[in-house]
Design goal:
By secondary structure, this protein is of the alpha/beta class. The strands form 4 sheets. Strands 7-3-2-11-18-17 form a 6-stranded mixed sheet. Strands 12, 13, 14, 15 and 16 form a 5-stranded antiparallel sheet that branches. Helix 1 packs parallel to helix 13 and helix 11 packs across helix 12. It is elongated, with a radius of gyration of 24 Å. It starts with a strand and ends with a helix.
């Protein structure tokens, strides 16, 4: 078996892994990145932007979010389940990280909110095409990869890691394999940054409340199968909070599909029993909405509109638009609706009557009819006595054709798995540091507990890059202190 030596081994070449590698190399370390895919970036290639607080782009636009305000909001939202010291370090570092990326050539298109009521912390990356949208952050990955290589970081693609090497309780390297066979790479520190378990139904089914393909239809970025988490556990790491970065989509449509446009609005939402279950104005917050949907039978909900509502959306535009859907208009929907009408659909339904709609969708007909009757009465009075929905969104059903879209829980990826401290050091089952082992990014993102903090958008990629920077710097400090000792 071949043997190699280096200062720092980074397992994973996504956003957190590249950030860790660059940070360690800037500290003078010799770094090897081991990536099992044939390219860098991982799920960050699908992302749009990352969190930043008190950044130069925010100040230029008079965005007044402060570190103190962001920290308080984050901790209130998580009810202090998150590691407060880790959260504070992450938020405090975030402005410096935006500068750090901009120095590499990354351009910020705009610091944005996700929805009204959230903060403009989401620093959308300006892609090389100039068109803001999904996958914009792939441009950031390109610059980070080039910066890592410029610093002498060796990036080994198609090189999966099989296990960590442990000696007297300390992690001293890894066992990996490439086209030439197995090798042992010995190092002063190892950083786990493998992107979580979003591509592992086995992990999802075992460690979250969901069953993939039954009541969860999440993104599956190939290769994110929990490898790094399992390796860390095998080396004695403590399990930490694990869940999914939940949102809600029409199943098997790819998420934020055009078919959703007139239905991801403050319309009438009902469950399989035909009953309302929340204030539909909340639809703009994906986490709040998915939490409500997840409590319903089979974790299923339907958004319902009639022909008059659809015509209004076509003529006047949508009530709610976010950064993700801003690049689409109702013409996109009409095209997808025509495809659904032609080829059939198991999520989109249209009918000439409520009875027919109920039959096609599986909604209880009697319950739906009663709900529509009660809802129309509230619309006439301009007062929602069920959930206090804003009067401007109380639009009665007037007949004609009816349309429904099925929604279920989905997720951008996973959250958590490896217990770390505020120094990104991995802790064992006795809450003691495992020397030489660090974790960052999604593998260790237990700060969004119990929910993804959508009021401060950009948290997944933001935590990945910032915790990666922390891990790289802390690993170098650990190595230098060992050498001095």
């Amino acid at each position: 078996m071949r043997e190699l030596e280096t200062d720092v081994v980074v397992i994973g070449g996504g956003a957190s892994g590249l950030a860790a590698a660059i940070s360690a190399a800037e500290g003078g370390a010799k770094v090897i990145v081991l990536e099992k895919a044939n390219t860098t970036g991982g799920c960050a290639n699908m992302a749009m932007g990352l969190l930043g607080v008190e950044t130069k782009p925010q100040k230029e636009l008079l965005v007044d979010i402060t570190r103190e305000k962001a920290f308080a909001k984050f901790m209130d939202y998580t009810h202090w389940r998150a590691d407060a010291k880790l959260v504070k370090k992450y938020i405090d570092l975030s402005a410096s990280t935006i500068d750090w990326l901009m120095d590499m050539g990354v351009e910020i298109a705009v610091p944005s909110k996700y929805f009204p009521g959230s903060e403009a912390t989401w620093h959308i990356i300006k892609p090389q095409t100039g068109k803001i949208g999904l996958r914009a952050a792939a441009t950031m990955i390109k610059f980070m990869t080039e910066r890592a290589q410029e610093l002498g970081v060796e990036i080994k693609l198609e090189t999966p890691v099989k296990e960590l090497i442990k000696d007297n309780g300390e992690i001293i390297g890894v066992v990996a394999s490439d086209k030439d066979g197995e090798m042992e790479i010995y190092s002063g520190a190892v950083i786990v940054a493998t992107g979580g378990f979003g591509d592992s139904p086995e992990f999802i089914n075992k460690y979250t409340p969901y069953t993939w393909g039954e009541d969860l239809y999440s993104y599956r970025i190939p290769g994110l199968t929990g490898d790094g988490i399992q390796m860390a556990w095998d080396a004695g790491a403590q399990k930490d909070f694990m869940d999914m970065e939940l949102v809600f989509f029409a199943p098997n449509t790819g998420g934020y599909a055009p078919i959703e446009l007139p239905f991801r609005q403050p319309n009438l939402f009902v469950n399989l029993g035909g009953k309302r279950f929340y204030d539909e104005s909340v639809v703009e917050n994906p986490v709040f909405s998915v939490n409500a949907i997840a409590r319903q039978k089979d974790r299923v909900a339907f958004s319902i509109i009639d022909q008059k509502m659809l015509d209004r959306y076509n003529e006047e535009g949508l009530d709610l638009v976010n950064v993700v859907t801003s690049s689409m208009d109702m013409s996109y929907f009409m095209k997808e609706m025509e495809e659904a009408q032609k080829n059939g659909s198991d999520v989109f339904f249209e009918a000439e009557s409520l009875e027919e709609l109920a039959e096609k969708s599986g909604i209880d007909a009697e319950g739906l009819a009663q709900t529509i009757k009660e809802y129309n009465a509230m619309c006439e009075k301009g007062m929602d006595t069920d959930f206090n929905k804003q009067a401007k969104y109380l639009v009665p059903f007037t007949g004609g054709k009816y349309y429904a879209l099925k929604f279920m829980p989905s997720a951008y990826g996973s959250l958590g798995g490896i217990k770390i401290n505020d120094m990104t050091q991995v802790l064992d089952t006795q809450a003691k540091v495992i020397p030489g082992l660090y974790a960052c990014g999604t593998d260790a993102n237990s700060i969004c507990n119990p929910d993804y903090v959508f009021i401060l958008p950009g948290n997944t990629l933001g935590f990945a890059v910032n915790s990666g920077r922390m891990a790289g710097k802390n690993a170098v400090t650990f190595i230098k202190e060992g050498m001095e000792a």
